[in-house]
Amino acid sequence: MKIYEKLLLENKAWATEKIQDDPEYFSRLADIQKPDFLWIGCSDSRVPANEITNTQPGEIFVHRNIANMVVHTDVNLLSVLDYAVTHLKVKHVIVCGHYGCGGVKAAMTNHDYKQVLNMWLRNIKDVYRIHRDELNSMADEQQKFDRLVELNVQEQVIHLAKTSIIQRAWKNEQRPHLHGWVYGLKDGLIKPVFEMPANTNIDHLYEYDDL
């Protein structure tokens, strides 16, 4: 059996088990999608949103990329954000990073990862630059690494608040609440590290006055 064929076999077994447990399971899923949450997470295969939150399909709308970034030139991210906030009317947007993130670790080095990855990692290097004093005061490299993971999540949440998508929803509907979390690979626990309730004040430079 080829390795990918095992995935198809497991899918059939999973679908059969679901129907045996609940004959209407797929019928309900097919009818409507009304998630309360948008999850912006890392592409790391060890951090599946549904499993670590013990939620079911249909409960969380998910976008994933390397190091859970909110980049304002990323049309993929912005289209997901717009659809989730404007059309699905999610109440919460969660940016979830994880300790041991390879993207954050790579950004802490001066290694050349070639053009595309260099462009992406530069966004994380900007987070380091903003918080350089705090990070450089840490002698322990693991502590510095963990803290950069947390600060990266914080900055991505702030990037969300800078978008017209979020600001328009805040102004008109007083939602969504923005959360910054970090998942621990070693213990399976999620640590909240930053929050921005709807209508949190941000730097006036980034506020839109004609929404």
From TrEMBL:
Zn(2+) binds at residues 42, 44, 98, 101. GO terms for biological process: carbon utilization. The gene is can. It is an enzyme of class 4 (lyase). The keyword Metal-binding applies. One of its GO terms (molecular function) is carbonate dehydratase activity. Its cofactor is Zn(2+). Its EC number is 4.2.1.1. Belongs to the beta-class carbonic anhydrase family. It comes from Sediminibacterium sp. KACHI17. The keyword Cytoplasm does not apply. Keywords: Lyase, Metal-binding, Zinc. Binds 1 zinc ion per subunit. It holds the Pfam family Pro_CA. Gene3D superfamilies: Carbonic anhydrase (3.40.1050.10). InterPro entries: Carbonic_anhydrase, Carbonic_anhydrase_CS, Carbonic_anhydrase_sf. CDD domains: beta_CA_cladeA. This is Carbonic anhydrase 2.
